[in-house]
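Can't paste images in this forum, so I'm doing it all in text. The chain is below; anyone willing to post the predicted structure tokens underneath?
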Amino acid sequence: MTEILAYDDSYLREFDAVVLDSTDKGVSLDRTAFYPGGGGQPPDTGSLTSGGREWKVKKLSRAGGKLIHELDSEPPAAGETVRGVIDWDRRYELMRTHTALHVLCGVVWRDYGAQVTGGDMKPLSARMDFELESMSASFANEVEERVNAEVEAARPVHIRTLPRQEAFAIPDLIRTKINLLPPSIQEVRIVDIEGLDLQADGGTHVANTREVGAIKVVGRESKGRINKRLRIAVE
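Text version of the structure:
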């Protein structure tokens, strides 16, 4: 089992680990700061080094219950100690983008009572779908103004983990239309943008909304009768 350090410290850029298993595809490690992907956030990229050798980490995947760091060449052997380095610029852009989506979700839920029906992100760009019957240009402009006010409010972002029963006792913890947390997950990671948004979430985030930067609403689409999409860019 791999200990995922990114869940506890989104700002950790480098780490040491031991190779647990080595395959043609890559390696599993005893610990990693690479975010494995999930919740619309893609997995990290970066590198592993050992004894003067270097491997590019192309992505992370799961196979046979193991978290695999997929490498660009023949991997190190089981038992080797490696140094991992995250592609920090890409990671930090994803952290800012993911927090921007939570700010967006918090504003739309607080001010319009709309649940999330889907979402996806890339570094500095993202989209989020809401259960809304209509979405006008004036609505999009109003949302942009309100989300940037929350960014400028410099709200702290807190991360904590709660037992499933305690977490689900929090009203409106799940903002998605469908609860995507399987029953097997007994410890729930909570992301709390102080005074704005409180959600179950496994992704990496900045520590304060001011780190997000300006959020621009760059598109709006209808994806069905009560399913509307907003596209954002983070500047």
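The domain at 91-234 is CATH 3.30.980.10 (Threonyl-tRNA Synthetase; Chain A, domain 2). The chain has a mean pLDDT of 93.
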